[in-house]
């Protein structure tokens, strides 16, 4: 809980428009949606080393082609084990055209489940089918 946070101030002053303006400016400065696009790559497997190795292999394949700030992670998901699966993810953020270029030559993930989540709404790792 942060009483001084812009969201709380907006609620206290009944100023949702002001909050939206501050939030959008911050997102633009940091390169987050809607200023850019984002894709979450999520890898899961019942054995942690398999999932971890798969996400690190993806990151290693993407890193030479990614510009600074386009590749975030990899890291364990906020809920690192879900439904018997160890979950790791990484994020790509850039323009839609750049994301398409990065995703075009994505190496296959062997032995683990890969899920792509364009414009993710959550980073918890729900492993939806």
From TrEMBL:
Domain Primosomal protein N C-terminal: 34-120
Organism: Candidatus Hakubella thermalkaliphila
Protein name: Primosomal protein N' (Replication factor Y) (Superfamily II helicase)
Biological process annotations from GO: DNA recombination; DNA replication initiation; double-strand break repair
Annotated Pfam families: PriA_C (PF18074)
Keyword Ribonucleoprotein set for record: no
Superkingdom, taxonomy of origin: Bacteria
Keyword line: ATP-binding, DNA-binding, Helicase, Hydrolase, Nucleotide-binding
Entry keyword Lyase: no
Single GO term (MF): DNA binding
């Amino acid at each position: 809980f942060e009483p001084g946070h812009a969201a709380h101030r907006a609620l206290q002053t009944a100023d949702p428009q002001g909050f939206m303006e501050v939030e959008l400016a911050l997102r633009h400065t940091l390169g987050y949606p809607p200023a850019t696009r984002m894709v979450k790559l999520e890898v899961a497997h019942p054995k942690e080393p398999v999932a971890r190795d798969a996400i690190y292999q993806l990151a290693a394949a993407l890193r030479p082609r990614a510009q600074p700030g386009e590749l975030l992670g990899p890291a364990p998901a906020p809920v690192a084990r879900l439904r018997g699966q160890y979950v790791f993810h990484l994020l790509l953020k850039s323009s839609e055209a750049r994301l398409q270029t990065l995703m075009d030559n994505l190496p296959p993930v062997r032995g683990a489940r890969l899920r792509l989540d364009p414009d993710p709404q959550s980073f918890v790792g729900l492993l939806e089918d």
